[in-house]
Amino acid sequence: MKNIFIHSLLTLLPVVAIAQATPPDTVEVELGGTSKVLFITQDKNDLEHLKQYDFQALFDDIILKLDSGSATDHAIADEPTPSPSTEDKESSSHTIYSDYDDDDYKDDDDDFDDNDDGHRSYPSSRQFFNMDFGINNYVETGGFSDPNQAAYYTVHPWGSWNVSMNAVNRVRFSDKFSLEAGLGISWYNFKFDEDNSLITKTIDEVTFGPDPRDHLNFTKSKLTVSYLNVSVVPVFNTGKESYNHHHYWHSWNQSEFRIGLGPYVGYRLGSHSKLVNKDDGDKDKEKEHDNFYLQNLRYGLRLQIGVHGLDLFINYDLNELFIEDKGPGLNAYSFGITF
User: Fold this and answer.
1) Residue 242 belongs to a domain with what CATH number?
2) Same domain assignment for residues 221 and 274
3) Sign of the CA dihedral 91, 95, 98, 101?
4) What pLDDT score does 120 carry?
5) Angle between helices 55-68 and 2-18 (to 10 degrees)
6) Is residue 323 part of a domain?
7) Average of pLDDT values for 243-248?
8) For 34-54, b where at least 16 C-beta lie within 10 A, e where not — what string?
């Protein structure tokens, strides 16, 4: 490599001398199959200084850096030591660039790099975490419709929070299409309109009605159900997506617009009812852990919509919350924001 540099330099000097009349802005010298040296001049007076440089010392220093692996993609070389005949002359600074092949170069962010020049390799994957926070409710779809009980399982939206924490693996197949596979835990919190709603499980069914303890001042009644969920959501996006490798909590908030729709399946981990009352100023919380004839499996569709840094979700359960004929025919849904 050293001989290639020197021979190329000797070839270059006559070109520089001839170019004094109309000096070019840039002179590029090919070295081998993939390397090159680029000379950039801002003032034609610099050509006189170039003639006096000790290029042997300059390239000895460059070769030493390349051999030691300390050179960078865009290395700014120190000003070379001038020859003894020009030590008293003013030297101008210059920049030498070490070229690389764009197709072979990738940084840590590869497909998600803000400075990506279009050379991408697909498919590629990325892992991150996100959290859903929103409101849940349900729609009555038939079966076990009892007007006397309906008032006691009617949900109050404010306070019926849906919380989910997810680990997501996104596989990108093109600039516009990716597939997100998620694994996470979610909680349905159904806060009832009637603060004294009591859930009672019998041999045949689960019923809803008022708590018979009229002397207590009830302030809250709710049903909480937790699930382990798996989801697979195809996502289409417009614009260029970028990724900050220092931020692993939700990494897809840079493309202009995105939308995804896909299925999910959840397995019930636990469930309990809670009644909160105040007796003589003291708050008392009563929890009952039971399955309440809730379905062990839930399955449905998830819709994701995002614009720049804002991401929204809607989940809808295609199967009923309770086992058929064991409770009211209710299909749960939730919607909110994804962080």
Assistant:
1) 2.40.160
2) yes
3) negative
4) 64
5) 140
6) yes
7) 43
8) ebebebebeeeebeebbeebe
